[in-house]
UniProtKB/TrEMBL annotation, chain A:
GO molecular function annotations of the record: hydrolase activity, acting on carbon-nitrogen (but not peptide) bonds
Record key words, sorted: Signal
Residues annotated as signal peptide: 1-23
PANTHER family cross-referenced by the UniProt entry: ALPHA-D-RIBOSE 1-METHYLPHOSPHONATE 5-TRIPHOSPHATE DIPHOSPHATASE (PTHR43135)
Amidohydrolase-related domain segment(s): 363-429, 881-970
InterPro entries on file: Amidohydro-rel, Metal-dep_hydrolase_composite, Metal_Hydrolase, Metallo-dep_Hydrolase
Protein name: Amidohydrolase
Pfam families with a match to the protein in the record: Amidohydro_1 (PF01979)
CDD domains from the UniProt entry: Met_dep_hydrolase_C (cd01309)
Domain of life: Bacteria
From TrEMBL, chain B:
InterPro entries associated with the record: Amidohydro-rel, Metal-dep_hydrolase_composite, Metal_Hydrolase, Metallo-dep_Hydrolase
Signal peptide (UniProt feature, chain positions): 1-18
Gene Ontology molecular-function annotations: hydrolase activity, acting on carbon-nitrogen (but not peptide) bonds
Native species: Hymenobacter glacialis
Taxonomic placement: Bacteria, Pseudomonadati, Bacteroidota, Cytophagia, Cytophagales
Domain of life: Bacteria
Sorted UniProt keywords: Signal
PANTHER family: ALPHA-D-RIBOSE 1-METHYLPHOSPHONATE 5-TRIPHOSPHATE DIPHOSPHATASE
Name recorded for this polypeptide: Amidohydrolase
Sequence ranges assigned to domain Amidohydrolase-related in this UniProt record: 342-396
SUPFAM superfamilies given in the database record: Composite domain of metallo-dependent hydrolases (SSF51338), Metallo-dependent hydrolases (SSF51556)
Length: 1033, 433
């Protein structure tokens, strides 16, 4: 045993005296006699880290009353009189670790009985008191007020080296404040709390709130934005309402804010919300940050990383393995590299033990992360300096400087070394023993049993769990067992338990041992490092035995085992991080498409045997025998057809976290542009169908829905870069059965409106309010700055802002609609209230009111032949598009469906069959016409010089079912082609196979595994509620 | 309601265009179609063909030169430039059982419970559905009206789409049992852990045990002496053991396909066909070796997994063809009743992704008829067979050219009008179009 003699009395004392040993006197009355002690300790000859990067050899650390007094080289630190001195020679002392993401000692929140769709809607908060209207927004909650010291939880954290944690109730969207507490469990709550309000917490997840709103991710984002505005207004106009939540939010504005997100894309979303609110959030993510590292770095945020690396999957079955998404396979391989990658990219981060089912995996996983290149310095920083700085407590924790909390960890070796053992964790000057130094018997020994020939005795494994191998002079290595306790040793081995191993260096055979187990008992002596004693062979023959350590051989063995481990192989990053992702976006080299039939969707009509030249993302030239600029390439279009890229006016692909915020009748404050999902494989599949752009619409669950996102199918780009720059704002309106919840079951009969009568009133009411609001805002904005500050003024309302934009022709309506009565209703409300309906979408009875639509100037975006799926489409006819076109309405065919979207050319073709449009007219229904109604026609929708190079080369007439896109260009980039697709398929197979092999190997090596479960393959539909996609039938 | 509407329409100029046209009476006069390109349905194409039929049966279908009958007395249709096809057959459909998906009162496709082999779709088949006429106009003239549901959903029947009532519509009553095979593929909700997988696996094993028990007892029940107490369930399953009915196994995942077919064979089922089969590409050898036919679910579908080839559903028919497996195409899924008028186009897509046009046609005519056991009369245009055929001005499988000019069911020239053509004319006249 290596425990130094100085340590023993202290350990004994602690055991005797129990709690409250070194506590300072506080406000609490004490039972019994006072026991205030000096609490002065000096640790000498330590290898001391005063902070994550400063190592002092042969250092002295002095603490008193729970605080650091001195820390420095032995010569520079004077040991005060009366100090308890511990010689920690050979040991390492690190500042105690800090975890900024825990719920240590705070109660879990339990959801009140949930009022789901079955019980009917819940419009209002269930919380009593003068708090915010939304149950998920409760910044007034303070962890400090409910914190209770918890021995079990603290013990688990201390075992990992943590000395202080931020504790917080992780529930809801605005979660309230967290307290910074030490993990000392001998003291009262008042004494372990280092900072009462150290940070605030946020997320997009409404947690246990039972209130309907928000039901979507975009709703959560809108709620956050509006709440920040409300807090400002509440501050300016405090007499308008007493709102304890908003007051609390205002008071917390200066605190660090930790935002928990579910993935890297939501990290980007959170940062955007923060930018608008003037907050730089600290982001606690999922561990997938490496997948979008550059973009996340650009946020300037510090990240909080968990170390819950996924288990390998069971991939033995060829078909079941196919069910595991490529991104999950790759994430298994790359997740342990996440901390290293962030570190190497200079992205600041703290580490947390959160999200680990078994907290004991924290240190092994951290070591695993180190094998991927995370340096010890970076790891230490992420556990000390960074979290302390984030909580603005760097003068109290995270380092060992005079005056700081005496939180430190004593280790047997360097912190990340494989054989390091955390010995003691001192918290606020009190020692918590984690383990004792196990005596290290490992080495190479000679072995002599009775008169047997001399063999070798190898002790390997870990000091606390030694493994024994007997190497006879000839034959195979034998595995044995060795237990040593207090220098008493017991050895058992059976010559039959042979292992394959190198043949020993020299000599005789061991076959003279009788069959059966050999048992040896004995003792270890430090002097000479010898095991010796008595034993019995299997036949009962008594023997003497002796094993003496060979120092030179031991040194060589240790050197060999300490060889640097190779950095594990991981696959390459792809964008997006999903099947069909690429290592980089395709380039924009000049491309000349020769000799094709060009469908211009312009007055020019179809041009035979024509060349089209794409340069720098634009259609540069259209003509015959065009020359190819240098560095370009030619595609032979002979016998093929070139069309403008297809534009889907009505799509719900590429949306994250719900497509409807239908919990209220008017939700114009929510924005699909906040939740674009750039990893939806629907984007790639659309490209394979010749689709280059789409309007991502809010669903149709309420009369005034959310704002749209207009995207191009830039597969691989960030959500932000997928959006069409300069595109005008759009918004979804809806009429009919979805809006009045006709098909939602008998429980949903409370939300207004429930009839088409009520629907009209929602519009009249909303626009009446918007007009009032606009007037009030205008009056307020006219005031001078000084005057504005002293005037209460109107509350900025994101919902009404969007409606004012509509009134001012800055935002355009796409209105889901079916039957003629409601179409006429909205047209008449629009005329009365002074706004325009830009587009009626679906509009299956448009053929009945085409004249009125034409008079209003409304566009129509319809289905080719859908009908009979609900009552309001019983009169839908496939002649609709043709009749409206002939009546002079600008008509498009849309998909509203991820599958049909990739065959929109065929859907357009049906208008030739049903209704007799010309083929050129038919193709315009999915190219220039939707471009016009989306106000994108200046740059998109037709093949015209100067327009965006969004074109599709088809193998056949694009209206024929036999045609398929051979190339789809977006901005002049070859975003899809049959040849590139074939290559991507091959890449996917190869990558899968490589990772599957690695998983099989990991499983064989004893790694934990998990069963494959299928990724939800659902889709958003117009009427999907909530955040779970619907499964296809 | 319908009466009022009809009366109101009677006063308009479109009175003749009733929403569900009157069924055409039996053929009384022979018909002769000349000049068209004949697509027999079995792969054969005959340019400039002559087709003659009388009393509902084809008396000639072949090259013009081979037609020797006296032309007098025929109603002649000159169809040069047009294409003649067997009437398409849509298998595995709720056509006639479901009118409006969201209105429960109009939905009769799924009975409560999981073991309903005694339930028969035919008695709920609604010949007055507004949807039927819109399906016929694109060339679909026969349908297998099929119940839905977990495990044993009930029995399907083959019908023709121009009839006064369901008895009138029957082509083959109660042709098969439909077994929806329990899914092997589970997905976890975000809130669930791996134990949920175990629970579902256990529930599935229970289902399979129950099925095995039922099939075992149903097979034995046939040997019971007369006078036994009547058990509707057991009695209704007799046909799958004596080969008079097909057992349609609805399964998609490759391993489910193999497992379900193995189950049926083990239980002594004579004729099986796999329906859905979206992952049949995983089990091609198995299907071939076991001579199992496949009803491929709607080709216009998304791939099942993100990493699957974008065209996997589109090319599945070609994969089956190449493997030598008999298959036909259905249109199950969202809006399958109203959408089944697009059956020809799923065949067209299969052509774009690997089939020949005639192979694709076979997959919606002859193969369907063979799988449903009606190929003696339907599925091809050959002398002696039913005169159930479609004349189109262009290629029927391409929406760009599909334009049905005439259609005949058992020799009866049926109306190509529908509620939709009526509404088109009504509103075109409003705008003077």
């Amino acid at each position: 045993m290596k425990i130094s003699t100085q340590q023993l009395p202290l350990a004994a004392l602690l055991a005797l005296l129990g709690h409250g040993v070194a506590a300072q006197p506080g406000t609490y009355p004490r039972n019994g006699v006072a026991d205030q002690r000096p609490g002065v300790f000096a640790f000498t000859h330590a290898t001391l880290f005063t902070d994550y990067k400063t190592q002092i050899n042969d250092a002295t650390l002095v603490i008193r009353d729970g605080k650091v007094v001195a820390a420095g080289p032995a010569g520079a630190v004077k040991i005060p009189a009366g100090a308890v001195v511990q010689d920690v020679r050979g040991k390492f002392i690190y500042p105690g670790f800090v975890d900024v993401y825990t719920s240590y000692g705070v109660p879990e929140t339990k959801a009140p009985e949930r009022q789901g769709r079955r019980q009917g809607p819940q419009f209002d908060s269930q919380k009593t008191g003068a708090y915010n209207w939304n149950q998920a927004v409760h910044p007034e909650v303070n962890a400090a007020e409910m914190f209770k010291v918890n021995n079990d939880q603290a013990t688990a954290y201390r075992a990992l080296g943590f000395g202080a944690v931020l504790t917080q109730q992780a529930d809801g969207i605005m979660r309230g404040t967290g307290a910074l507490v030490s993990l000392n469990t001998n003291r009262r709550e008042n004494e372990v709390m280092l900072l009462e309000k150290a940070a605030t917490g946020l997320s997009f997840d409404k947690g246990t709130s039972t209130q309907d709103y928000p039901s979507s991710l975009m709703g959560s984002i809108a709620l956050l934005r509006q709440t920040y505005l409300d807090a400002q207004w509440n501050q300016r106009a405090p007499r308008r309402e007493q709102n304890l939540s908003l007051q609390a939010l205002t008071q917390q504005k200066a605190l660090p804010a930790i935002f928990q997100v579910s993935d890297k894309l939501s990290a980007l979303r959170a940062d955007k919300v923060g930018d608008e609110a003037g907050q730089q959030y600290i982001i606690k993510g999922r561990g997938d940050e490496y997948q979008r590292l550059n973009d996340l770095k650009a946020t300037g945020a510090t990240f909080v990383l968990a170390l819950n690396f996924p288990d390998a999957y069971n991939v033995e079955d060829v078909y079941d393995a196919l069910r595991i998404p490529l991104e999950d396979l790759k994430h298994w391989e790359m997740a342990p590299a996440n901390p290293a990658r962030l570190s190497q990219a200079g992205v600041p981060f703290a580490l947390t033990a959160a999200d680990l089912k078994d907290k004991k995996k924290f240190l092994p996983n951290l070591r695993k992360a180190a094998t991927y290149g995370l340096t010890e310095t970076a790891a230490l920083r992420a556990l000390t300096e960074t979290p302390a700085r984030l909580l603005r407590a760097q003068d109290r924790i995270g380092a060992l400087r005079p005056g700081m909390e005496a939180n430190f960890v004593v280790c047997s070796a360097r912190f990340l070394a494989d054989d390091n053992v955390l010995l003691d964790n001192w918290v606020q000057g009190e020692r918590y023993q984690l383990s004792t130094v196990p005596a290290d018997y490992r080495g190479v020994y000679t072995l002599k049993i009775g008169d047997q020939p001399e063999g070798r005795f190898l002790i390997q494994g870990k000091p606390e769990a030694p493994e024994l191998k007997i190497v006879p002079t000839a034959g195979d290595t034998i595995k044995g067992s060795l237990t040593v306790s207090s220098d008493l040793a017991t050895v058992v081995f059976n010559p039959k338990d042979k292992q394959k191993g190198k043949a020993p260096k020299a000599a005789p055979d061991n076959s003279t041992l009788p069959a059966g187990s050999v048992r040896l008992s004995g003792y270890y002596t430090q002097e000479g490092r010898v095991f010796q004693g008595d034993g019995l062979l299997a036949d009962g023959t008594p023997v003497k035995w002796r094993a003496a350590r060979l120092e030179e051989a031991t040194r060589i063995a240790k050197r060999d085992s300490a060889k640097a481990k190779p950095v594990p192989v991981v696959g390459s990053l792809i964008f997006p991080f999903a099947a069909y992702g690429r290592s980089a976006m395709p380039g924009q080299e000049p491309t000349l498409i020769k000799n094709a039939t060009v469908w211009t969707s312009e007055a020019a009509g179809n041009l035979e045997n024509t060349d089209v030249l794409l340069i720098n993302g634009k259609i540069s030239k259209i003509g015959k025998n065009l020359a190819l600029p240098k560095g370009g390439r030619t595609i032979d279009g002979t016998g093929k057809h070139l069309s403008p890229g297809i534009i889907d006016e009505h799509s719900h692909i590429a949306v994250a976290g719900g497509v409807n915020e239908g919990t209220q009748a008017v939700t114009s404050e929510v924005r699909v542009s906040d939740v674009v999902d750039n990893e939806d494989v629907g984007i790639y599949r659309d490209l394979a169908g010749g689709v280059v752009a789409a309007q991502l619409l809010h669903g149709s669950a309420n009369p005034i829905g959310g704002q749209s996102a207009l995207i191009k199918m830039r597969w691989g780009a960030t959500p932000e870069d997928m959006k069409i720059a300069g595109a005008p704002g759009f918004i979804k309106f809806a009429l009919g059965e979805n809006v009045k919840q006709s098909n939602w079951g008998e429980q949903n009969v409370l939300r207004f409106p429930q009839t088409r009568m009520g629907t009209e009133q929602v519009f009249v009411d909303a626009f009446s309010r918007a007009k009032e609001y606009e007037k009030e805002m205008a009056a307020y904005n006219k005031l001078g700055k000084g005057k504005q500050k002293t005037t209460e003024g109107p509350r900025r309302d994101l919902e009404l802002d969007a409606l004012v934009e509509i009134l001012n022709r800055q935002r355009f309506i796409t209105c889901h609609s079916y039957v003629q009565s409601e179409i006429n209703m909205l047209l008449s409300v629009a005329d009365r209230m002074g706004f325009k309906v830009n587009t009626f979408t679906h509009i299956l009875e448009g053929y009945k009111v085409a004249d009125k639509m034409k008079a209003h100037g409304a566009n129509a975006s319809t289905f080719s032949d859908w009908w009979a799926y609900k009552n309001e489409v019983r009169d839908a006819i496939p002649y609709n598009a043709a009749i409206m076109t002939r009546a002079g309405v600008n008509v498009a065919i849309n998909s509203d469906d991820a599958e049909m979207s990739r065959r929109l050319n065929q859907e357009a073709a049906k208008t030739v069959k049903y209704g007799g449009l010309t083929e050129a007219e038919a193709l315009r229904l999915v190219t220039i016409n939707p471009a016009k109604m989306l106000h994108l026609d200046a740059n998109m929708g037709s093949i015209k010089e100067g327009k965006d190079a969004d074109v599709v080369l088809w193998t056949d007439n694009p209206l024929s079912i036999y045609a398929k896109p051979e190339y789809t260009f977006v901005d002049g980039r070859e975003m899809f082609s049959l040849t590139a697709d074939a290559a991507l398929r091959a890449d996917i197979q190869k990558e899968r196979q490589r990772i599957v092999q690695a998983m099989l190997l990991a499983k064989k090596g004893g790694a934990a595994t998990q069963a494959a479960s299928d990724k939800p393959q659902g889709l958003w539909h117009c009427d999907t509620m909530g955040q779970e996609k619907e499964l296809a039938k | 309601m319908r009466v009022i509407l009809t009366l109101a329409l009677a006063s308009t100029a479109f009175a003749a265009l009733a929403q569900v046209p009157m069924p055409t009476p039996a053929q009384t006069k022979p018909v002769l179609i000349t000049g068209a390109t004949l697509h027999v349905g079995n792969g054969t194409v005959v340019p400039n063909a002559t087709v003659a039929f009388d009393k509902g049966r084809l008396t000639y279908a072949g090259p013009a030169a081979g037609f020797t009958q006296d032309r007098a007395g025929f109603d002649a249709i000159e169809a040069t430039g047009q294409h003649l096809y067997p009437g398409l057959i849509v298998p595995n459909t709720t056509l006639g059982l479901t009118e409006v998906e969201s209105i429960r009162a109009t939905v009769d496709d799924e009975e409560v419970g999981t073991l309903n082999p005694n339930v028969r779709a035919i008695v709920a088949y609604n010949t007055d559905s507004d949807i039927l006429p819109t399906v016929r106009t694109n060339g679909v003239l026969l349908a297998q009206t099929t119940p839905r549901g977990a495990l044993l959903a009930g029995q399907s029947s083959v019908v023709q789409l121009d009839a006064w009532n369901w008895q009138d519509a029957v082509v083959r009553a109660d042709d098969g049992q439909h077994l929806t095979w329990p899914q092997m593929v589970f997905r976890l909700n975000p809130s669930e852990d791996a134990t949920a997988l175990d629970r579902r696996q256990k529930a599935r094993e229970t289902q399979l045990r129950n099925l095995e028990q039922l099939f075992g007892e149903a097979s034995a029940y046939r040997q019971q002496p007369a006078g036994r107490p009547e058990n509707l369930r057991l009695a209704s399953l007799a046909g799958i053991f004596d080969g008079s009915k097909t057992l349609y196994l609805h399964a998609d995942y490759g391993k489910e396909i193999i497992e379900s077919v193995r189950f049926a064979r083990r239980m002594g089922v004579k004729k099986v066909s796999v329906v859905g089969a979206r992952d049949a590409w995983m089990a091609l050898d198995f299907l071939k070796q076991n001579d199992v036919s496949v009803v491929v679910s709607r080709v216009h579908a998304l791939p099942r997994r993100d990493a699957d080839d974008y065209d996997q559903p589109y090319k599945l028919p070609a994969q089956l063809q190449a493997a030598g497996i008999r298959f036909c195409l259905d249109y199950q899924g969202d809006q399958e009743t109203s959408g089944s008028r697009n059956l020809a186009f799923v065949a067209g897509t299969a052509v774009a992704f690997g089939l020949t046009k005639e192979q694709a046609l076979t997959a919606v005519t002859l193969s369907t008829a063979q799988i449903m056991g009606i190929d003696k009369d339907y599925g091809t245009l050959e002398t002696g067979k039913s005169a159930t055929l479609v004349l189109s001005k262009g290629d029927l499988l391409d929406m760009r050219t599909n334009a049905v000019s005439r259609a005949f069911i058992d020799g009866r020239g049926i109306s190509l009008e529908s509620k939709q053509t009526y509404l088109e004319k009504k509103f075109r006249s409003k705008y003077g179009q």
